[in-house]
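Appendix B. Worked example

We walk through a single record from start to finish. Start with the input: the chain for YlaH-like protein, Ornithinibacillus halophilus, length 102.
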Amino acid sequence: MVFDFVMENFGKENLFTILFIVNYILAAIAYKLGFAKKLAIIKSVIVYILLAIGVFVLNIMFIVLPVAWAKDSLPLTESLVIICLVLGIYRLRLYRQRKKAS
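Next comes the structure step. The output line below is what the pipeline stores for this chain.
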């Protein structure tokens, strides 16, 4: 769905860059909502660099595998959107519960 939208509106030239940026932003949001702890600034930079490397590898598979298998694209971006929504709802409910308890 997102893959097709980007292909139709931006073409093959910008496909990898746009999907990388969108997937990296969504992965960073998911990390922040679900897993992040207070870290020193250098450790946070290292975590986000490693996150960028992981998203880079996933993006390569996201774009190459559907071409190799002649199938539809994998729902990577859509999965990240759902993950962010679920973690956002979880954090909101946790915040309300803690606020109510105090």
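Two observations about the output. The radius of gyration is 17 Å. The mean pLDDT is 90.
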